[in-house]
Amino acid sequence: EAGVAQSPRYKIIEKRQSVAFWCNPISGHATLYWYQQILGQGPKLLIQFQNNGVVDDSQLPKDRFSAERLKGVDSTLKIQPAKLEDSAVYLCASSLGVGLNTEAFFGQGTRLTVV
Amino acid sequence: AQRVTQPEKLLSVFKGAPVELKCNYSYSGSPELFWYVQYSRQRLQLLLRHISRESIKGFTADLNKGETSFHLKKPFAQEEDSAMYYCALVSGSARQLTFGSGTQLTVLP
């Protein structure tokens, strides 16, 4: 079914290495979110894009995390260098906009293990 | 700052019993609340939103501004309701979507 696509599904890296995740939102969705979900916790918003502009990155650890959304469509999230505590599922979501009652659609997530 | 609290990490009920998943929020503005659900091996998906005042799969949730709560209820639980449930709040000018820590519901046969 058409939906938010993420890759890879799984990634194992050593600490201090770099990693990148890719997200393809639903066609026509202006808003894109990246969430970090640590085991046993709810998703935590890292960054929110409206088209290709950042509207909220207050919880993004900018010393090691970066994200971009080229041409307002696909997005990549990068971690450089990774730490053990970055082990989590990284979820991408998209929505038509930010209007009232707007539903966010989620991808399957990328499970990152840092060893 | 906005906050969503789900006090129960785990909840087990028997099939046919009523179920209530608790959610409390903290937000100075007018809240917009949602329940999301994640079934085993599936992606996170919207269950219902308070503004629609809808019943989905037999679930309802009423916003109580006095108690700052948005509890999810179902009168007769089914085994297929077993899943992880997240309460979520939309807030701020950028309309950030903030999640609670989730409740794992298990419906026993």
Kindly report the oligomeric state of this protein.
heterodimer
Judged by helices, strands and strand pairing, the structural class of chain A is mainly beta
The rough form of chain A would be described as: globular
**Class by helix and strand content of chain B?**
mainly beta
Largest sheet of chain A: 7 strands, mixed
Q: Please give the number of β-strands of chain B.
A: 11
* Largest interface between protein chains, with number of residues from each side: A-B, 27 and 22 residues
The stretches of 5 or more residues of chain A where confidence is low (pLDDT under 50) are none
- Overall average pLDDT of chain B: 92
Residues in β-strands, percent of chain A? over 45%
Poorly predicted parts of chain B: none
Task: Tell me what portion of residues of chain B adopts beta-strand conformation.
Answer: over 45%
Q: Helicity range of the residues of chain B?
A: under 10%
Order of H and E elements of chain A: EEEEEEEEEEE
Distance between the termini of chain B: 41 Å
Summarize the helix and strand pattern of chain B as letters.
EEEEEEEEEEE
Q: Number of helical runs of chain A? A: 0
Mean pLDDT of chain A equals: 93
Number of helices of chain B: 0
End-to-end span of chain A in angstroms? 34 Å
Describe this structure in words.
The complex is a heterodimer of chains A (115) and B (109). Chain A has strands at residues 5-7, 10-13, 19-24, 31-37, 44-50, 53-56, 65-68, 75-79, 88-95, 105-106, 110-114. Chain A is mainly beta. In chain A, the strands form two sheets. In chain A, strands 2, 4, 5, 6, 9, 10 and 11 form a seven-stranded mixed sheet that branches. Chain A has a four-stranded antiparallel sheet with strand order 1-3-8-7, with no helix packed on it. In chain A, β4 and β5 form a beta hairpin. Chain A is globular and about 40 Å long. The model of chain A has no long low-confidence stretch (mean pLDDT 93). Chain B is globular. In chain B, the strands form three sheets. In chain B, strands 2, 5, 6, 9, 10 and 11 form a six-stranded mixed sheet that branches. A three-stranded antiparallel sheet of chain B has the order 3-8-7, with no helix packed on it. Chain B has a two-stranded antiparallel ribbon with strand order 1-4. By secondary structure, chain B is mostly beta strands. Chain B has strands spanning 3-5, 10-14, 19-21, 24-26, 32-38, 45-49, 60-61, 72-74, 83-91, 96-99, 103-108. In chain B, a hairpin with a 6-residue loop joins β5 (32-38) and β6. The model of chain B has no long low-confidence stretch (mean pLDDT 92). Chain B contains no helices and eleven strands. The chains are: A mainly beta (115), B mainly beta (109).
